[in-house]
Amino acid sequence: MLCQPSACSLTVQAPAKLNLFLRVVRRRSDGFHDLETVMTAVNLFDTLTFEPNASSEIQLRVLMAGTRNRSSRPAAPIPTGADNLVVRAAQLLKDHAEISAGVRITLIKRIPSAAGMGGGSSDAAATLAGLNRFWQLSRSQEELMDLAAQLGSDIGFFLGASSTAVCRGRGELIEPLRFPASLYFVVARPHSGLSTPAVFKQCTPGVSARGVDEFVHSLKQQGLGHTVRLLLNDLQRPAEQLNDEVRQLREHFSKLPVLGHQMTGSGTAYFGICASLQQARVIAARLRAVGVPWVQVASSCS
C-alpha cells in the first residue's frame, strides 16, 4: 500500500491480490469456511484520494480508470453508499475514534469487481490506513487489524507489512511469507463475474488432502519449477460449474507456455505464472488476440 500525501489531500494506492494456493478446509458452525491460502499482492492498483469535507459526512465518488468527472458505469454498478466497503470502513474508523470529521473520497477503479482479486477488501484496508493518517488518529496497527476483522476476511492481509502471506481461518490469521524472487503474471478476466457466497455454497470442503505447508516449503526452498505443480484452488471447480467462462479461460491458458495457471479467489479472474516479464507481455498479447476482454501483466509487489 503506497501513500502519497499533499498539502490538503492524501492519495493511497490499493493493490490487487492473487491466491497462489487456496484450500477450503471445513465449513464452520457460523456459516463461514476455514481456509488455508497463500496470497500475494500484485502491482495492479485502485487509487483512493482523501480530501477534507466541510460537513461531517463521508462522501464517496467512484470513477473507472480512464474516465473523467463522471461516475463509473460498470456492468454491475459499484455502490457509493453504506453498501460500499470503503464507506463502511471510513464510518467504522470514525465511530471508533469518536470524531465528527467528514471526508470526500474519490475511488478510481482498475481492479475488476467480482473477480477474486480482492479489490473491495484492498480499498477498505487503504481507507483504514489512509484515514488513520489523514485524520491524524495515530491508531495502532493492532487496532486497525481489529477493525479490519469486523469488515471482512481479506482486509487484514492488505494492512500487513508483507506483500505475501499465509492466511488461515477466514483469512484473519496472517503469517507473513518472504521469498527472494519476483513473480510475473498474466491476469485475465472474462466478461462476467461471480458471487463469492454462491461459489462457496457450491464448494465441497475438505476435498484436497494436501495442506499449505508443502506449498510454502516449495516456494521457499525448491524453486518455481517445482512450486507451480502444487498450485491449488478448491473454488475453481465450483466456479467452472457456475460460469463457463472460467472453464474457457482455463482452456486458453492450457495452450500457452506459462509455468502454471489457475483461478484466483472465487473467480472469475484467472492467472498464469510466467518465466519473465517479457514472456508475460507476449502471452498477454496472445490472449487479447483471441478476444479475452480484460488482460493485464502484473508482478508481485516487493
Structural category is: alpha+beta
Q: What percent of residues are in strands?
A: 25-35%
Elements, N to C (H/E) = EEEEHEHHHEEEHHHEHHEEHE
* Rg calc: 19 Å
- Assign the CATH architecture of the largest domain: 2-Layer Sandwich
**CATH domain fold name of the largest domain:** Ribosomal Protein S5, domain 2
Count of alpha and pi helical runs: 10
Taken from the alpha-carbon principal axes, the silhouette is globular
Instruction: Write down the overall mean pLDDT.
Output: 93
CATH class of the largest domain: Alpha Beta
In whole angstroms, the N-to-C terminal distance is 11 Å
What is the share of helical residues?
25-40%
Oligomer: single chain
Question: How many individual domains?
Answer: 2
Verbal overview:
The chain is α+β, with helices and mostly antiparallel strands and 302 residues long. The chain folds into two domains: 2-176, 2-Layer Sandwich (Ribosomal Protein S5, domain 2), CATH 3.30.230; 184-299, GHMP kinase, C-terminal domain (Alpha-Beta Plaits), CATH 3.30.70. The chain is built from ten helices and twelve strands. The protein has helices at residues 85-97, 119-134, 141-151, 155-159, 196-202, 212-221, 224-227, 236-242, 244-254, 277-289; strands at residues 2-5, 10-27, 33-53, 58-64, 102-109, 164-169, 173-176, 184-189, 232-233, 260-263, 270-274, 294-299. The strands form two sheets. Strands 1, 2, 3, 4, 5, 6, 7 and 9 form an eight-stranded mixed beta sheet that branches. β10 (260-263) and β11 (270-274) form a beta hairpin. It is globular, with a radius of gyration of 19 Å. The chain starts with a strand and ends with a strand. Residues 67-74 have low confidence and may be disordered.
